[in-house]
Amino acid sequence: MKYINLKILPNLIVLSIILSSCHNIRKDDRNAVLNLTGKEIILPDSLGVMIQDVPVEYDFSFADYKVVTYIDSKGCTTCSMKLTPWNDLINEFKTIEGIDVNFLMILNKDADVDLISALKLNFFRHPVMFDPQGRFKEKNSLPSSPAYHTMLLDSDNKVVAVGNPVLSPKIKDLYRQILTENGTERSSELCQKPVVALGVVNAGDSVVRQFNLVNNGKDIWNVQGITTSCDCVSATISSEMINPGDTAVLTMSFLADTIPGYFSKYADIYFQEKENSEHLLVHGFIVNCIN
């Protein structure tokens, strides 16, 4: 497990509260946020987690950090979900090496047809908990303002920052600062989509995904080698040399484990002309079967 640098923690907490505040924030909300910071967040045992319409086994204790966002039933729920920005943010944070970051969206709604359809149409393949009775908000004594319903938690599920990173670039930078304190941020030079969320896969299935590596520069890139996260993952590339303007395709294959739950697999491609590797990752949830 990785842990946040305690020397910067107090300043980050204060900054997160200030940046996520409005000028007219109520005093009781401010006090509620202060009470929330450092508090352990608990998931109600009676609520299950789904990827779109498929139940999955979600281990909330897993991961070095978690981003949790709670969306109440007021107004347009599908508008408030901001699925496309969340997809982009999750994929971006997943490129940070050396730490595990999990995400959970909690909806104060039933899993109705419209919500499931919205998740599918927006290709949102991340954990969602449906909580029509508002048990999560009640159990954790969340502030009344939705501005404080998104939190970054540490490995002990304690709040280290508050605010919605998809609505504020300053909050996003704050979250990234905390995450990269113990991890390494990696940017891809050749692949526009280095992270792929697979959603759910059957236990024991053979999974294959391809990544396009595009050389938009003026220099030739020569492949030096490829390493993978484990023996169950293999990766091949269509060309050992990528000329300017050309595209090479990396094919990643792995055999899904027989144990249900979250998985993350990667391949690192090393080039002779490049100091850092291209880090390509797939992640999702293994289930016993998909109905």
What's the CATH class of the largest domain, please? Alpha Beta
N-C termini distance: 34 Å
Order of strands across the widest beta sheet? 2-1-5-4-3-6-7
Mean of residue pLDDT? Answer: 87
Helix/strand order, N-terminal first: HHEEEHHEHEHEEHEEEEEEEE
List the helices and strands and how they pair.
Layout: H1 9-19, H2 27-36, E1 49-51, E2 54-56, E3 65-71, H3 77-81, H4 83-94, E4 101-107, H5 113-121, E5 128-130, H6 135-139, E6 150-153, E7 159-162, H7 169-180, E8 195-202, E9 206-214, E10 221-228, E11 233-237, E12 241-242, E13 247-255, E14 261-271, E15 278-287
What do these coordinates show?
The protein has 291 residues and is an alpha+beta fold. It folds into two domains: 9-180, Glutaredoxin (3-Layer(aba) Sandwich), CATH 3.40.30; 195-287, Sandwich (Immunoglobulin-like). It has seven helices and 15 strands. The protein has helices at 9-19, 27-36, 77-81, 83-94, 113-121, 135-139, 169-180, and strands spanning 49-51, 54-56, 65-71, 101-107, 128-130, 150-153, 159-162, 195-202, 206-214, 221-228, 233-237, 241-242, 247-255, 261-271, 278-287. The strands form three sheets. A seven-stranded mixed beta sheet has the order 2-1-5-4-3-6-7. The protein has a five-stranded mixed beta sheet with strand order 8-15-14-10-12, with helices on one face. A three-stranded antiparallel beta sheet has the order 9-13-11, with no helix packed on it. The protein is globular. It starts with 8 loop residues before the first helix and ends with a strand.
